[in-house]
Structure formats: structure tokens, C-alpha cells
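Hi D.,

Good news: the full-assembly prediction came through. Inputs first.
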Amino acid sequence: MPLGVAVVGTGKMGADHVRRIDTAISGARVVAVADIEVERARKLAADLDGCTAHADAAAALAAPGVDAVLIASPGPAHEEALLRALALGLPVLCEKPLTPDAASAYRIVEAERRLGRRRIQVGFMRRFDAEYQQLKAALDAGGLGRPLMLHQRHRNTATPGHFTERMMITDSAAHEMDVTRWLTGHEIAAVQVVKPAPLPTSMNGVPDPQLVILETTGGAVADVELYRNAGFGDQVQCEAVCEHGTARIGDGHAMVVQAAGRWGGAIPQDYLTRFRAAYDREVQAWVDATLAGRVVGPSSWDGYAAAAACEAGVTAQATGVRTVVELADDEPF
Amino acid sequence: MPLGVAVVGTGKMGADHVRRIDTAISGARVVAVADIEVERARKLAADLDGCTAHADAAAALAAPGVDAVLIASPGPAHEEALLRALALGLPVLCEKPLTPDAASAYRIVEAERRLGRRRIQVGFMRRFDAEYQQLKAALDAGGLGRPLMLHQRHRNTATPGHFTERMMITDSAAHEMDVTRWLTGHEIAAVQVVKPAPLPTSMNGVPDPQLVILETTGGAVADVELYRNAGFGDQVQCEAVCEHGTARIGDGHAMVVQAAGRWGGAIPQDYLTRFRAAYDREVQAWVDATLAGRVVGPSSWDGYAAAAACEAGVTAQATGVRTVVELADDEPF
Amino acid sequence: MPLGVAVVGTGKMGADHVRRIDTAISGARVVAVADIEVERARKLAADLDGCTAHADAAAALAAPGVDAVLIASPGPAHEEALLRALALGLPVLCEKPLTPDAASAYRIVEAERRLGRRRIQVGFMRRFDAEYQQLKAALDAGGLGRPLMLHQRHRNTATPGHFTERMMITDSAAHEMDVTRWLTGHEIAAVQVVKPAPLPTSMNGVPDPQLVILETTGGAVADVELYRNAGFGDQVQCEAVCEHGTARIGDGHAMVVQAAGRWGGAIPQDYLTRFRAAYDREVQAWVDATLAGRVVGPSSWDGYAAAAACEAGVTAQATGVRTVVELADDEPF
Amino acid sequence: MPLGVAVVGTGKMGADHVRRIDTAISGARVVAVADIEVERARKLAADLDGCTAHADAAAALAAPGVDAVLIASPGPAHEEALLRALALGLPVLCEKPLTPDAASAYRIVEAERRLGRRRIQVGFMRRFDAEYQQLKAALDAGGLGRPLMLHQRHRNTATPGHFTERMMITDSAAHEMDVTRWLTGHEIAAVQVVKPAPLPTSMNGVPDPQLVILETTGGAVADVELYRNAGFGDQVQCEAVCEHGTARIGDGHAMVVQAAGRWGGAIPQDYLTRFRAAYDREVQAWVDATLAGRVVGPSSWDGYAAAAACEAGVTAQATGVRTVVELADDEPF
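Then the structure:
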């Protein structure tokens, strides 16, 4: 039986999660959606088999078939939905921030503690990014030694006009707060912010970029460039500088390690590793097309033409001479 | 209703497809598996809800709930299974090769033609690889002009001892036969093979590597290095040399284009693009853990600690001075 | 007539400059060397035609044939040598630091001002590095807009035991002080230093690495990672983050620019550019060997063998068939 | 005493060598130049102290002060100049090709053999390119095993209209003929050429690009893409595919090796290595400026400003707080 999920909040992020559960991942289905703009929820539910639409989180959580909750509403609405989910004992995936401030977040910690067992996963999704996981694994493996510094870049192509300066911290740097804690295993001990001047005219005068410097309880130092209007693209990078080398991710390819006089990375050892995502996309595309009554992808003619070329190839291989391919000329469809 | 799939052949490739349909993709379930080693099929079916095991393809295709067929048995068994699927009008995803030789492959083309509509997708999965799709899109966009040459590398870490020389063509080069046809839009017109000497001692004396040179009906030239015992890893690369520049994939990062005096690539413009796979993995991990009665990933304490660090960050941002983070010290669980 | 140079200081750096003037560059010769360890100076002078050795800078500057002075003695000895050179009106190339502190450096500025014309070039050699020059040119070209941040890494493989903490600034960061001034065109306005803890046991307890944060009079922010015992190698990197993109150097290849949705770099447009250094090394190797009475490099046989292969190539090109190379088998020497 | 060089041929290549000897390398001077367009030779000689101009090679070789000869005239003129130099016993650096065909090249080999000692270095300058030398060293070190294949790319931005098809081989591929011989230590045994079709309209119908396939006497296979009108730039690449890994150069950075599951390269271990070229350029720039009566590069003010910033830095380092830089405001010059 697939997991029945209630999705609370159907803005950009929530709608993307609904699509994800419906068409990209395995083992779950969306059975209820909630949004204070209930029309938006209704439109989304209309495309989903057996999904109900609601005007608030409480109603969605009480809908039939709900086994778990995904919270993607604005941050200020999180506390109420979280407490309701905890009261019902439902597992929750809550988009970050958990709540907008430390006091309310601590109330959630306490409510879950009273429940006596973990129910909440917070949506710091970088911990699930393949490159961040490579970096975490490299640090945990120990060969590079203790991480001493983290250099982080967090750049966005552009940012909407309603963005405020404090959101540079609560919306952007929040990710690096978590990454720094996760990679070092320390808590954040102190923060400072340095800003270039004069102020840019973009973003209603919000200073951009900004440099955030974090010190951890274990003595590591992390710097974070926040650049909300970088213009050229969306880019997230992290370099860990350790006792015996560095490891860097986010350059558009897999992790690069510097140690013992060399820089470089790993080469996949198996074609199922190299092409895992391609296989997933291939079979998903086949399933999607079949459900839609279509056939896509390479055809039987493609299979035949490759077989004919391979026959010529085998002859060429055995004889050492150029061999012409014999091919019928009546491709169907 | 999910698509009911019969998987024919439960060796390495078939078992991987069963796992893929069961745990990685959306909209399908495995309802029947077949293998001449029926014990192997039974073991696999035992872990799947409502899945039956069979000793041959015909039985599996006739099993209740079968809407479509995935063929992953050895190549010589494909023809019979394909014809049976066509007879039943079932959509098929058939692992490459379609069949082991051109004559039998052409029989499949004709059988499908008689049916009057496409039923078969052949498993040339490189067409679903993100990098190959970038390359195809770049060529189709036209800015680089006509492709004149393709330089391809097809390297495997190691190859089992039963591998024969002709499999260098039928098993390895078959992929590049299809890629060359797909990227150029031409058929393969002629093939030749050049081999280094003296023979290596590996692989029972099969000469390795080999250089295959393809000429297409449209006048393009493609070279393919086949290296089955490269030792260092599994690597598939392709560079298209065109009238106005080159595009190259397979170096472990996204496509690199050379044109108009510059080399480089594209930067993602949106965080949902940059982190799509991370979001998919995050939600899949949450669903999997929840179905297993567990909670994983960042905890409410992680959410709280980030909120506390952000509060200090907002103060540091406003005051310009180093700000200490206030954090409770009673992390639960 | 070549320029007659007096080299003051014959330690590692000074001896390298003597070798450079003698064997690598054009238009100058070393006519005098000075070192308080006069034996060291004498040993160096013995290998140089017409070069005299001296125990102090004043004597070397007064030696016959001296047209210019290169100062490579320890920093505290610079002021005296500089003032003497200014008194004699001699052009000076002075290794950094100009002098060890601001007050003495300002005395040099004043002495040169009194002279009424520039005589001194300070050895901030990064301004002559090809990659730094690319970066400077990119910033000056204006397309990237104003530089807002500089991220700099200054890493050394290892550092001698006598290294003190303040040398992290005066010896290492001094380079980035100059680079930051040069690239932005601003003065440094303020400095702070953040250090990871606990202290490492290396380098007599000098905290390493350290993060230096510079603010410029024009409002740019620069961070500098100083890492004297990085262990893995010697590495100097700089990324300029600008209004419309970034430019980065020091990754072991030419500058990489990010702007307008793309990352990448320039491709040389001319083989004399691509291979300029190779031509220089070729002709220098020929001159050196000839002066030593030897002949090195590709031989006439190499020229003949290439000609024979080219003849076969021209035939193969005209006929389209594999053509065997005819080659004599009596290679001489 | 510097080596007195006669330069025969003062076209693009010859003039560049004259400039090189005059201003870039150490230990030699041009004492004679020859060109059948004697006006061109005269113009060049006029800028050089004590250099005579001649209408033919013989006259130049007989000029006073000639110790060695650099031949940069068109290929058909090489034989006569080479034989004359051998008759005089003069060391020669001869631009490639040695001579235009195998028979005449072999006459040179025999003439030098009769002389009983090597006099000739042929201008295959790739052997002096830092990246090619890294590749050669990696192959000679043995860890990668025997080279089995070489993949080479030889691309030019554009090619003059008088270029003929056979020059694809004699002018372009000649380099790869030598590189293949040098890297493998084998002779070229056979050649074939494969060309895309239809013919391009560029270069008077010369087919471009072309794929050249070389087989060596030791059993290695080398492919060479020749692309004279690549349009995007000048690019020379070589990948050696060996028994235990690959090594690749020409991507705009140092050699990348793939072996044992990893890809990567070496990091310089010493700042004199990292910045050797910068030091050379710095001192050369200082010498050139001084000889021209000028002073360039960082000034004493730059030295002072860096010293002032360092003083603030040392205070910041000791106190942990942001420290303002004290700087005079009377920069001279």
C-alpha cells in the first residue's frame, strides 16, 4: 500500500512536491492538499486520483487515508501544522525553516520530546544532494583530517523584489548554517556579517552580496558568500579545508579532492553506477508513455539498424578491411 | 492504477529493473517475473506484493494483471518473447540488442509493421542520459552546424573471462552504433576496425582495446575506442566535431562546448533545477523511512539550531559586530 | 650592451634571481653580488664571467659596471640598501617587503619623492603572473562590472620551524594586500583575522590556517585563507565576484569566467600563442647545448622518418587506402 | 660570449625567432639574417646591433661571428642551407620539415653521418612544450604501462587560401608523426586517411577535417583529427591510452591522468615552481624598462601601502578585532 500523504501549502515548492510524489518517486501518493487559497489546492487535487482539497492544515491532516504530512506552507504557518501533526502522531517532512525563530522552534523540539519519539524530518535537502553526500563521506572517512575551514558560495540568479535583508540570513544562510553543523558535527558559536559598499540599487537597496563568517563550538571557521542577484546563475559550492587536504563540491561535477600533492576525483567503476539515472529515466519514460497509450524512444528499426551495423563490424573486425553495411530501406512508422 | 509489468529475465540487468520499478520510479509495479532458472525468479517475486514467478516468457506474459513487458533475458531469447508480446499487443521495453543478428531483428520490424503500430522500445538507454540529451539538443539547435566527426570512448573497468572478440562489437560498440545514428540522423554506411598489437594476455587473448571507425550515409566519420579492460573505471565519452565548434560529454560533468573562441558550459538558472535530484532523494528517503516505521534526516533539533544561528546572524547583520549564538543544551533523542 | 646588475642578498631568492639573469632572460648580466655571508657571494660569483663578490650592499653598488640593483636580502636590510641606491640614482628591483614596517617604508617613499622620479620597482611578482594579468584585464575591461568581493587562497606545502605568527601577515598576506589593492584600485581600509581552534601542534603552535578579512576604501570585501602547512601543495587562487559575474584564477589552468548563464574560458587563437613558451624553451635548449658543445633534441633521422611517414600519408590521403611507410633501417648515431 | 646566430629566412616564423633570440632568451645574439627578399632581411637587421643582412643562406653562414645557424626558410630551401652548414661544421636548428620529401631528408641524414657527429636539431618544438614533456615523462615512468593508442586533435582557427590538401599531411600531421614516434619509441608503419563528406566550401574545396590513422612498428594505433578551419581556436591535444590508465594533455591545463579509479593531476609543491614564469617576466620587464630609461611595476608607494595594511593585520591578528589601516594620503608620482 502506498503511503498516503497530505501536502500543506501548494505554492511553488508545495506544488513541486505534489508533482514529485505523483510522477517521480515510488511508494507514496498525495491524498489531501491544503492551502489558505483553497482554489489553488482544488485545482491541484483535481488532477490527482482520490485527493481531497482543504482550506487549512488541520482539515487536511484529518482527511481519510492520511499517513504522513509534508509541510510546504510559509514559515509562520509551520508551528500550528507541526503541533497538529505531532498531536496526531503523524510523521512529518517540514520544509525549512522549521519555524521562523528560535523560541518557536524550541517549542517544537519540546513537543516532540514529550511525544517520546522522532516524528519530524526538516527539509534541509542538501544533505540528500549527491555531491554534499560525497563531501560528508570524505570528511567522515577521516583521511583528510579535521575540517578547519569551510568556504561556501550561495548564489542565485535573481531574487524577487519583496525580499528583505534579514531573509539573506533566514532564507539563504539557513542552508549553510545547517550544512556547517552537519559537516563539522559542531554547533554554530558565533556569527558576523561583512558587506561591500556602497549599496547596490537592486533589491530595494538590500546590500548584496554579503559575507557571513561562522565560528563553530569545535573551533572551525566557515565563510559564506551570499549573492541573491548574482545574475549569471544558481550556484552552491562548498570547499572543506582540512588538516591534510581539501575537498570541494559544486563546480558542476563530482567532488574534487586535493591531498598528497595531487588534485582529482573518482571515476565510476560500474556502468550501472555511471548510468543509473539514465536507466531510471528510460524506464520512467517508458511507463509514462505506456500509461498515456504511446510508444517513444528507440524503435525496433533502431534495433535492426544497430544489428546490421554490428554484423558489418564483426566482419570488419575479423578481416581488417572496410566493410559496407547492408540495410533494408523500408523503415516503417 | 499503476502499470502491471512482466519482467522477463532476472539476471543482473533484469533484477536491477525489478528493483527500479519497485522502489525508484512512479506509476508501475512488477506483477510477474520469468526466468529459465525459475528459482531465481521465485526468490525475486517473494519480496514483491502480488507478483507471480514463471519459467518462461509466455507464461509470464499471460499472467493476470500484465499490461506491459520488460525483456531483460539474454539476446538469443529476445525474438520469441518479442513475437509473443506483439501477438498479445503488449507494449515492450526490450534490452539491447533487439535480437543478436540483423535477419532476426528485421523479422521483428516486419512483425510490428504487420501489427500496424509501434509496440517496442529498445533499451538504448544513452538516449535518456542527461549528458547525451544535452549533446543531442546542442546539435539539433543548429548553432554548431553539421556534425562532421564523433570521437567516442567506451571503457569498462574489467570484463568477464567468457567475453569473446565479436562481443566487442555486438555488446559494446552496439551502443555507439545507435548513438552515432541518433546524433547524426544518418545510417551507418561502412565500418572498419584497427587493433593495437601484440595481443594482450587479458581476456583469453581478445585484442583490447580496439578502434572502430564508422562512416555514415550522410558523410560523417565516427571513431570509437573500445576498451573492455581499461582497469581504471567505467567511462563513456563523446565529442561531436561540427562545422562551427565542438561539444563534448562524459568527463564527469555537464557538456562542454567550444565555439567562437571560447570553451565552457551552462550554469543552472534555478535552484529547483540545480537540486531536483536532491529533492527527489529527500522525499523518497522520507517515504521509505516512514513506510519502514523510522524517521531519518535532519531533526527538529537541527531545525531549532539553525533558527538560533539565524537569529544571531540577523543581529550580526544589523549591528556589524560578532554575535554569539544562544542555544539550549538539551538536545533530545 | 647588457644591463649590469648588482644582486644584494644571495639566499634562496637571490641565488634564483642570479640564475635567472644569467640563463633565462635577455639583456642583463650580473656584475656584482653581495652577502653578509661573503663566502656564499664568492661561490656564486665564481661561476659568472666578470662578476665581483662583496660583503655589503654599499660595496656592490659601487662596483664597476653596475647599472641597476636587485635587492633580495632579508627585509630589515632593505632600507639601507634602498637609500644607497637612491643616493646613487640607480634603478632598483626590491624583493617584497619594501621594508618591514610602514614608517620605514614611508621614509623610502619620501626619499624617492625628493629624488623627483621613480627609481624603485617592488617585487610583487603576482602582477606579472599570466593568470593574474588575465584577471586584471578582465576586471579593467568592465564587462563584469565593479568587483564586490575577492576570495583568495594562499597555501604552502610546508613552512620552516622558525616561522612566527606575525609572518602569516607580513610574509604571506602581504601578497594579497597588494593584489587586493591592484585589482580593485582601492586602498585597504580595515583588517580582521579569524582563526580556527584549537591550535595545531605544527609550526611551534602558530595557529594555521587563518582567515583574513579586508575591507577596501572603495567598499569591496576580500577574504584570504592563509594556510602555511597545507601539506598537499603550493596553491594561490583568486576569485573576483563582480556585479555581473565572477572570474577565477589559480586552478591550474587559465582564467574561468562566469557570466550570463555560462562558465568558461578563452581558447588561444594562434599557434604562436599556444606554443610560445615551447618555442622559447626549444631555442634556449639549442643555444645552451650548442654553447656546451652538444646537440640535443630531434635529430635529422627524426626529420627523415617524419618525411617518410608524411609521404605515405599523402598517398593514403589521395587513394583512401592503408599505405605502408617505406623507411631505411640504418639510423646513425 | 654569447652564441652568434645566423637566421636564414625572415618570414613570420624567422622573424619571431629573431625577436626571441634578441629579447626573450639568454646566451645568444643574431649576427646575420638572410632572405631572398633581402629588403625584409635588411629591415630586421637594422634594429639589431652588429647584425648583417644577406640575400642567401651561404652568404649569411659565411658572415663574421656566425657560430650556429637557425633555418626558417621555406622547406624546399632547407636542403641547400643544411648541406652548407654541415660543410662548415656549424650546429643547426632547422624548422620542420627537415626537407619536403623522404629522399632529400635521407641525403641530409647521410651527409651528417659522413661528418661523423650530430650537428642538426629539427624544429619539432612540441618536444619542448611543458605539457608534452609531462606526458612523455609519465609514459617513461612506466606506471601506466605500454601506450596502446594515442588520440590526437590538431585544430587551427583558420587557414590561408593557398593551403593544399597534401599540406594537411606535410604541414599539419607532420607534428603528430613526430609526436607519435617520440611518445611510443616506434616508427610509423602504416597510414590511412578517412574524410567526412560532402566537401566543405572552405579552403578551395580541400576536405576538412580529416581523420588520420597511424599504426606503429610496435603495434600502437594513433588517430589524429586534423581540422584546419575549426573556427573556434588553435588547439592541440593528445591522450595516451595505456595498459593501466590514460594521460591527457592540451585542455588548457596541466596533464590529467586516469588510473586506479581516479582522475587528476599534480599540484606544484613549491612557489618557485608555481610562479617561475612570473618571476622571469617580472625581472625581464624590469630589465627592459630600465634599458629603456623607464620604471614600471609596483612602486615604493605600493610597498608602503602593503606595509601599512600588514601592520594593521598584525594588530588584528593579535587582538581578534577589526583594525583600521593608517595610511598617509600623499602618494607621489
